[in-house]
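Comment thread on ticket #2218

A.B. wrote:
> Attaching the input chain for the structure job we discussed in standup.
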Amino acid sequence: MNNSGCLLGDMSLLTQNAENQKNNKFWTLLYIKKGAGIYLLDGHLRGLSDGDLLFFPPGLDYSFSSHDLGDEYNINISASVLRFDEAWLDALLGVFHGLSEMVLNIRNMRSAMYVSGLKWMSLSSLMDEISQCGAASQSCLVMKILEQISDSKDMLPLTSEVKGEEPVGERLTRIRRYIDCNVYRKITLDEIAGYVGMNRTYFCLFFKKHFKISLTEYVNSRKVDIASAMLLQTEKPVSDIAKECGFTTVNYFNRIFRNIMGVSPGEYRNARKIC
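C.D. wrote:
> Ran it. Output below, let me know if you need it in another format.
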């Protein structure tokens, strides 16, 4: 199979430089492994930080760069990227006839998407493998990635931001979405406040007013929600689940889990098994 229409590999973006996609003909999956910056989509600027996993269909004009997030973020971006075009999808179908439904689902995705949830865990791991595998392994890797992309679960549309004062409901939705998309890593107050266009003091007041708890409490509750599901749906050790959910130590995970659920992770898993 001809891979000329499929590009898979690592890329670096130096400070103050930009990657521009005009009249874009590629589907693109971009995984930011290190660094931070901004991207421009439909005339609106958004924050870009390590751990972000974005999917862009063809036909969109967008650009991203590693500048303008302040001195502490003024660093290079290191990313893994997968790009493929229409001709490559046609060639894929010519070889693998059983993939017609998967390819159709991908072709029907016409909005830029933010990957979150359990799909983020799976796809980010696959994208990490890009720089480690040889050419012989890439075809298998691409097929696994395409299978994940074709199911839109845990893929959130990147809707254009509202110019002027943003309605409270839309801002709350963006806050929830940002937390869910980044819950597996450390989310800083400055980062999320900047994402929704607030200073940190006003963001804390705004968040507490509408969510009734602090940012840390909310993030921990979302981590515990995910950990609870993993405890019941997988046989992974508690230590692995704690790490995958972004907790720095198992002891800290156990303490937060007990505070929220009233039992330890092990007790929670065992009690549900008995039921």
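A.B. wrote:
> Thanks. Noting for the ticket: The chain has a mean pLDDT of 80.
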